Amino acid sequence: MAYGRVALVGAGPGHPGLLTERARALVEQADVVVYDRLVSPRLLMYAKPEAALLYAGKAPGCHALAQRDIEAMLVDLARDHALVVRLKGGDPLVFGRGAEEAAALRAAGVPFELVPGVTSAVAVPAFAGIPVTLRGVSRSFAVATGHAGDGLQAHLDAIAGAETLVLLMGVAELPRIAEELAARGVSPDTPAAMVEWGSRAKQRSVRATLATLAAEAKRRGIGSPAVIVIGHVAADASLGAWFESLPRFGERHLLFASSAREALAHAARLEAEGAEVMACTWDRARAVRVAELEAAVSMAAHGRSVGFAFCTALGVEAWRCAVQRAGFDLRRLGNVKLAAVDGYVAHAVRERGLVPDARSLGEMARLPVEVWFVEAQSGGRDADVEAACAASGADVRSLHLLEPRPAPAVPARWRPCLRAWRDVVAEWLADGPAELWALGDPALVRPLAVEVGLGGDALRRADAFGLAADEAVCGA
Ligand code: SAH
C-alpha cells in the first residue's frame, strides 16, 4: 500500500516569526496537522481551511495520548492523506521525541521529512533578554532536562561545569536541582532566571539567584512551561526587556474576517508591534459554492457584460480562483465591471491588480453574501453595474457561503482528537482577554463571533474596530 508523506516539523516557541519557511510551507500544504500543547494555535492559521487538525497534547483533566498512540496515529493518517504534518513545539529533536516518531515511521515504511525548529532552549531566554553565551561571561551552555529521574545525580555531575545551564521541564525539580548544584560548588548566589510561555503574549519572567529562584517564581505564580537559565548571563542587562517593552506586548487580538489570508495581512502589523493575534474566518466555517461563480466568469469571458459586486475579501479571492481555474487570461474579461462594498474589500480587489469600478452597491452589498453578480441587459462596454442592478429585468444572482464544510476524513479511532477551528479559537480565548476586530462589515462576521461563544458586548466592540480596520488598510 502506498503511504503519503509525514513531516516532523519544529514550530518554535510560539511566536509566528520563529516558524521556519519550510515549516510554514508544509503547514500550508498539509491535509492533516497533528499538534501539541506547546504549539501556538496562531500557527495553525496557515493550514488550509479543509485540513484536519488533531490535538495530540494533554487536555486539562485528561491524559495525553501515549507516545506509541501518536506514532500509530501518524502511520494511520499517512494511509489516507498525502501530507501529514506533525507539528511540535521548539525543535523536534530537542526533548521532542522526534527521533522515536521518525523510527516508527521508518519501521512502517512511511516516507518522512524532518524540519528543525527554533528551540525554546535558546529562543525563550532571548525573548526574556538573556543571551546564553556572552563574551567574557559565558563560553558554554548546556541544555538539560529537569526530568532526569533517578539519573539526576550523574546528570548533574556531567553538566554542572557549563558556564550557562539551560533547563527545560525543570520547574518541578528546581528546588532539588538547586541544592544538588550547590553541593557541586555552584554558588547559591549565581544569577538564575525563569521564563514562562516565552515569545507569547503571556510571557512572564523572573530573575533571582540559584538559591531564591524557586521560591520567587512560586510567589509570583510563574511556572511550567518555562525555561530556566542558571549562570551569570541571567543577570545580564544588555538586551533589557526588549520583547516585553514592545508597544503592544501582552495584547491579544482576535480578528473576524472572511479568509485567513485577509486576517494574516492584518496580523503582521499587530505582531510587528508585539501583539499576539488569532483569527476566526468564514473560509474555515463554510465551504464556498463555486459552480455558479464559474458560470458567471465564463459568461464574462465570452464577451457578455457581467458585473460582480464583492462584499468580502473572500468573495474577491473566490472570484480570482474561479478565473484562474477556468484558465482565462484576465484580458479576456474586458466587459466585466467590479464593485466593492467598502474600502477593505476594494483593497482586496486592488491587491489582485484590478481597480473596482464602483465602491458600493448599497443595500444589495450589505447582505451576508460573498459575491453578487449581474448580467447587464444592455451589454456593451459602457454598461454600468449600478445602473444594471437597478434596471428591472436585470438578472441578479448571489453566491452565499451556506454549505457546511464536511468533516475531514480521519479514522474513527482518532476522531476524539479532531478539533474544529472554533474549538481552537475558544481554547485560545480561554487563555485571557482579547480585543475583537471585525475586518470589513461587522454584520457579515457576526455569526462567526456567535460560533466561538461571544455575545453582543463583543460585537459592539467589533463594530468600532471594523471602522478602524478599514481606515488602517485603505487610508492615505
Ligand atoms: N522541543 C522543545 C522542547 C520540548 S520539552 C524545544 O525545542 O523547545 C518541553 C519544555 O520546553 C517545557 O517544559 C519548557 O521547559 C520548554 N518550552 C517549550 N516552549 C516553551 C515556551 N514557549 N516558553 C517556555 N518554555 C518552553
From TrEMBL:
A UniProt-annotated Pfam family: TP_methylase
Record's keyword annotation contains S-adenosyl-L-methionine: yes
Broad enzyme group: transferase
Keywords on record: Methyltransferase, Porphyrin biosynthesis, S-adenosyl-L-methionine, Transferase
InterPro entries in the record: 4pyrrol_Mease (IPR000878), 4pyrrol_Methylase_sf (IPR035996), 4pyrrol_syn_uPrphyn_synt_sf (IPR036108), 4pyrrole_Mease_sub1 (IPR014777), 4pyrrole_Mease_sub2 (IPR014776), CobA/CysG_C (IPR006366), Siro_Cobalamin_biosynth (IPR050161), Uropor_MeTrfase_CS (IPR003043)
Record keyword ATP-binding present: no
A Gene Ontology BP annotation from the UniProt entry: methylation
MF annotations from Gene Ontology: uroporphyrin-III C-methyltransferase activity
EC code: 2.1.1.107
SUPFAM superfamilies cross-referenced by the UniProt entry: HemD-like, Tetrapyrrole methylase
Similarity comment text for this entry: Belongs to the precorrin methyltransferase family.
Official protein name in the record: uroporphyrinogen-III C-methyltransferase
Organism field: Alicyclobacillus sendaiensis PA2
Gene designation: cobA
